Amino acid sequence: xxxxxxxxxxxxxxxxxxNIALALMGCFLGTIMGALPGLGPSNGVAIxxxxxxxxxxxxTPSLILLTSVYYGAMYGGRISSILLNIPGDxxxxxxxxxxxxMARQGRAGEALALSGVASFVGAFFATWGLxxxxxxxxxxxxxxxxxxxxxxxxxxxxxLGGVSSTNQAKSAFAAAxxxxxxxxxxxxxxxxxxxxxxxVHLYDGIDFLVAIVGLFALSEVFIFLEHRGTDKDASTAPRxxxxxITPSLAMLKKCTPTMMRTTVLGFIAGVLPGAGxxxxxxxxxxxxxxxxxxxxxxxxxxxxxxxxxxxxxxxxAGGALVxxxxxxxxxxxxxxxxxAVLLSLxxxxxxxxFTQNPDVVWGLIAAxxxxxxxxxxxxxxxxxxxxxxxxxxxxxLMPVVAMVSFVxxxxxxxxxxxxxVMIAFGVAGWVLRKLDVPLVPVILGTLLGNAMEVNxxxxxxxxxxxxxxxxxxxxxxxxxxxxxxxxxLPIFVGGVVKARMRGAAEREASITD
Amino acid sequence: xxxxxxxxxxxxxAALYAFAATTxxxxxxxxxxxxxxxxxxxxxxxxxxxxxxxxKPDPEPEWPRMGRLAEIGLAALVMLAYAQLLPVxxxxxxxxxxxxxxxxxxxxxxxxxxxxxxxxxxxxxxIFHLVLGLSLARGxxxx
Lengths: 513, 143
What we know:
- The complex is a heterodimer.
- Chain A is mostly helical.
- Chain A has helices at 2-14, 17-35, 41-54, 59-84, 93-141, 146-160, 168-183, 208-227, 249-271, 276-292, 303-327, 333-344, 351-356, 358-379, 383-389, 394-413, 416-434, 440-462, 474-512, and strands spanning 185-186, 193-194.
- Chain A has a two-stranded antiparallel ribbon.
- Chain B folds into 2 domains: 2-55; 66-131, no CATH class.
- Chain B is 71% helix and 0% strand.
- The longest helix of chain B has 24 residues, at 66-89.
- Chain B is flat and about 55 Å long.
- Chains A and B meet through helix 7, strand 2, helix 8, helix 16 and helix 17 of A and helix 1, helix 2, helix 3, helix 4 and helix 5 of B.
- Chain B: The chain crosses the membrane at residues 36-55, 76-102, 114-137.
- Chain B: Pfam families: TctB.
């Protein structure tokens, strides 16, 4: 078994004191960020990238730190869903439905412990899925030439809006905006400056880290300024007692089949482009409700309704790493941010990653296993600690988020110009969010724009200027077909799913209020 | 209406982008595609989706009232001033002021704001500079 041998090597890489400490730190910070409403996995990772970078960490340690944050945030999101009925991040939305009613019955501790176990099961098996599926995908990806890569990038953009976006035109606009920003700077193939308007600072292009931190972290600060003192203000929600924090064996036993089914479903949702963790938890919950909810207890504090979305979203988080590592094409917002880490460390993601930097890939995967066990240990006995962190009001938290973002970006370049660009992205991010334009395609565009163009030009140049090469093989045709289906299908079914997701959350809120 | 305005701005942006792309100079090294083709494609996608917003706008988003808009604008201005003053005043002083302003606007009282501002600045300074060794902006006082 090649794969297992590589995994063993990965453990050798990951098991150094520095890496274990980083994983521990990442898991801890991630859980906090996931738990705090307003900070989710993508902006949590975004804030920390510049720091990992300026601290001079190598590739493997930085990735270990940041993916631990990613997994941690997926665990942490449930805490505020259960206690406050406010999802700590988007994937945790479905956990509110049964988690909060459980908490109101005085079983908050049980709900927290059970969802911790469910998160562990989901993430643990999804990481095994990653171990076995990613190398298979790499074998396929090695057949890809530049034309196939161009089609693959197009596929990533066209499916990214996916089923959860309301308006495909808005995801298309967002992608064009991101790609357009990526073009700024000196053209790598011919050396001419493009869209720089004579500004020397722009010759290197726009640093995607600046864009990411501005769009994800600063725009959140503006959202909080907008909602202060209104009923969307998270700081006024009532607090609940926790109760016992161990789930009974009977409850675990009852939930085991649920966790197993939703882990598989969540993992598949994660691997598919454009679906991601939010959809993973949504379809897991819906399927379980259809399958096992015979007495109509879902929505009133059924433990299976807590286990299903948590196992689903954590499995999807692991699944989303498969296309990111194997193809270099992320399927979700946070994996797009993790891709930024790889790019800023000068590591080319994609199939060659597995042959050229096996230590990075397998070290990372091993670290995920280690992180998972740490998270389970952290999230059950120490959950009280994280609950206390939730008491930090946003008025203190958000300025800290803003300042840490500034510190990170200033640390990279030491230039005020980058800070101003970041603020501009923050304001733009706020406006785009108000208009319901998704931010993830913007980020993905700035990240992948140059690679996409290079592959397109390489393919056409090899074919002597013949553009038909872009659809010249069965593989490209297949990729384009999936891309077009992925773009068109949500126009018909996407609105329904999105409306149901929102509807479910709102119905629940009106019951418990 | 917001979506229609947005569509109009998007169209203008696409036109500007396409125009800026025409001004990209040719180079002595060139490939079959050249540096302009891909940007034209981007401008096309942008223009098409903007047209879509013009003809099929989404329901109106909930815009905040003028006061709140001014709030966001002022916060952005304070951040811009912060970016400019950071190298002049040094990290601790500039950060204390900026975070005090933000926490005040998010609902702290004046006294609380002063305390939170100073502790945020000092806290970040200690953790990131003294413990982690990150280089922060140095002011005339050396911190």
